[in-house]
Specification:
The protein is an alpha/beta fold. It is built from 16 helices and twelve strands.
Length: 377
């Protein structure tokens, strides 16, 4: 091991550590590997995780949706965390979680937050008044005294991650770099490759669902995902109808089956849209019951076409070829498995993913289904 930002003697005598992060599924697709490497390096330390909800609100009507965030299914099942703080989606629950965390008297608290860094610097010091706390920080204007005072509460810091300064580094390498700086251990490219362990019950569920739809194991099944949390990274759902029709016009794809991913809040709208087109062998899908329904379904597909969101990273984790539709603004988030990924990037720097046409995706089909050996980001 090399030098570490967290004192090695503190790591040796501590019994637990708390990581604070505002996690999305895409983040955890790569951070899971870092947490696993940390657990192997320091098996005596119990790992606790604080998942902070950036959509925190006083609107009680939104709480049920936030409470059921599918990430928690994955976090709970991965076996890496002794305790997870997940009730941070309202101001009252945030205060309650802080009080609960203070009772743990954490000797080490690490913030991996890349948004509102000063807020999380203050939060981790509040959680652990006497512990060793580390957060990200960025340059502060000389006159911004409040932020300067907040950052002084940190015992150590790692430089802020800024996409444009990341160069050609993949996000998995950036995350691994944080852990090397913090704890002194390096990760190989193989250790950074994403994985997801799908419980057998959900793998069985996916097989049954395909059979119920009338899809066979030897069918060419294409998974289509047009949804991202941000409009600039999404595709209009109607274009998936256009794409499915265009794919079926290609030699060898005439009998292709399609699974169209739909976020729960858009399901009613999607059903109306697809009903109007009377399309055969196209089914709408949503992992409404459990997160693992998503990777289980992905793992049984022939090809995945997805906009820039967690689905395209999970495609690599389940080793299914993917056509990824991306903007130019986040090259560090390109799928890690270059051999099984074909990336179509918007031509204009500030262009939106919807600028990519169905014809461009169809043109990529041959390259997407003929993986190139030995390539990895």
């Amino acid at each position: 091991m090399s030098e570490s930002l967290v004192p090695r003697e503190l790591l040796a005598r501590a019994d637990k550590i708390l990581f604070v992060a505002h996690l999305a599924l895409g983040d955890f697709t790569y951070l899971q590997n870092c947490f696993q490497a940390f657990a192997h390096a320091f098996p005596h330390l119990r790992i606790h995780l604080w998942v902070d909800e950036t959509r925190r609100t006083r609107d009680a009507g939104q709480w049920e949706h936030l409470r059921k965030y599918s990430l928690y299914d994955w976090v709970d099942d991965c076996g890496l965390f002794d305790k997870v703080y997940r009730e941070t989606y309202s101001p009252a629950l945030l205060a309650r979680s802080i009080a609960e965390a203070q009772q743990e008297r954490y000797p080490i608290v690490i913030s991996l937050a890349v948004l509102k860094r000063h807020f999380y610097a203050a939060l981790i010091r509040k959680i652990s008044p006497d512990g060793f706390v580390v957060g990200q920080k960025k340059r502060v204007r000389p006159w911004d005294i409040p932020k300067r005072l907040i950052y002084r509460k940190l015992d150590a810091s790692i430089p802020a991650y800024v996409a444009r300064s990341a160069g050609l580094a993949h996000i998995s390498a950036i995350y691994a770099g944080w852990f090397q700086t913090l704890f002194g251990f390096a990760m190989t490219a193989e250790q950074r490759f994403p994985f997801v362990r799908i419980p057998p019950r959900w793998q069985d569920w996916a097989h049954r669902q395909l059979a119920q739809w009338g899809y066979r194991a030897d069918d060419r099944i294409v998974f289509l995902n047009a949804f991202s949390k941000s409009p600039e990274r999404s595709w209009p759902l109607r274009r998936m109808i256009e794409l499915a029709a265009a794919i079926r016009r290609q030699p060898g794809w005439e009998d292709a089956c399609f699974v169209v991913n739909v976020v729960p809040e858009k399901m009613a709208e999607a059903r109306r849209l697809f009903a109007d087109h009377a399309l055969e062998r196209i089914e709408l899908f949503s992992a409404e019951e459990n997160f693992f329904q998503l990777p289980a379904m992905l793992s049984l597909c022939t090809l995945i076409v997805s906009v820039e969101t967690a689905v395209m990273h999970l495609a690599n984790a389940v080793h299914v070829p993917v056509i990824a539709l991306m903007r130019q603004t986040s090259p560090e988030w390109t799928p890690i498995d270059a051999a099984n990924s074909h990336v179509i990037t918007v031509e204009r720097r500030k262009g939106w993913v919807e600028d990519i046409t169905a014809d461009q995706v169809v043109a990529a089909l041959p390259a997407a289904i003929e993986p190139r050996k030995g390539e990895q980001a």
